[in-house]
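The following record pairs a protein chain with its ligand, magnesium ion.
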Amino acid sequence: MCMISIVVPCYNEQEAIPVYYEAVVPIMGQMKPVEFEIIFVDDGSSDASLPLMRKLASQDSRVQYLSFSKNFGKEAALYAGLEHAKGDYVAVMDVDLQDPVDLLPEMYRHIQSPDCDCVAAKRDDRKGEGKIRSFLSEHFYHVINRISQTEIVSGARDYRLMTRQMVDAVLEMKEYNRFSKGIFSWIGFRTEWIAYTNRKRSVGKTKWSLKNLLVYSLEGITGFTVLPLSLASIIGLLFCLLSACMICFIITRKLIFGDPVAGWTSLVCLIFLVSGVQLFCIGIIGEYLAKTYLESKRRPIYILRESSEVEHE
Ligand code: UDP
Ligand code: MG
């Protein structure tokens, strides 16, 4: 018998969880004889999300939950869910119904093909999203795809159905700084894309501030390309060439005109410019160093406080 596990990260989603459950169960019920399990991952919520999950799990044996000791972030929640999923196929999706549950049967049909390891959803527009957010997102995808060899599809959501083989490959990627969109693409396999129209959140509000998104984009860039480091060396080299020209020019001028005082303004400007560029390059190196430092500590990606298998004492 084939089983689909659905991993659903939740952070303060007390309004969304019951709505999601009511929406997903009938859809999965239609897919008989396929069995399913829903794994809610409580990412350290401070609202009533966890009691709700406990209640659903006690009423319905197909519902499992994992609860973290604090907020570890959506990426950690996805990892934990994948680790605990027992299904032959595993779906990951948001709880706010922005990822349409009615796509699941279609995704399942597609993944049956031997040439398909993963079916992923992508938005065909960004309606319902703020203008600044859309603008920044579009440019982020443009930049990352130019500088990184790992393709990150614009508009791709973390909504996908994967085969067991692909899930195992994702689980092999044990890095602490996680950027799922990059990981899914880096491991390869054959992904089919299904386009759908963007929807608004059913209830509750987004957990992603603009600051979170900026940090997330930086994660994506530093996690999947070291080109900024090469950029720092190239800028350094260019400045060396430029200063060689400047030295020749200044010495020649001094020999011809012998004017030692003039040139204060240009000197100060140059000092500012060069120190700015130096700091920028050190910053880039620092960014990678920080990532290496965090990875080298080998901290766990998440810590469980309670789960449907092991209740909190
Ligand atoms: N989420 C999470 N941990 C976090 C932030 C978000 O598990 O620290 C979950 C959240 O509950 C939701 C999903 O990740 O199920 C997507 O979050 P959200 O809807 O806020 O993001 P958006 O759709 O606006 O990108
Ligand atoms: Mg959402």
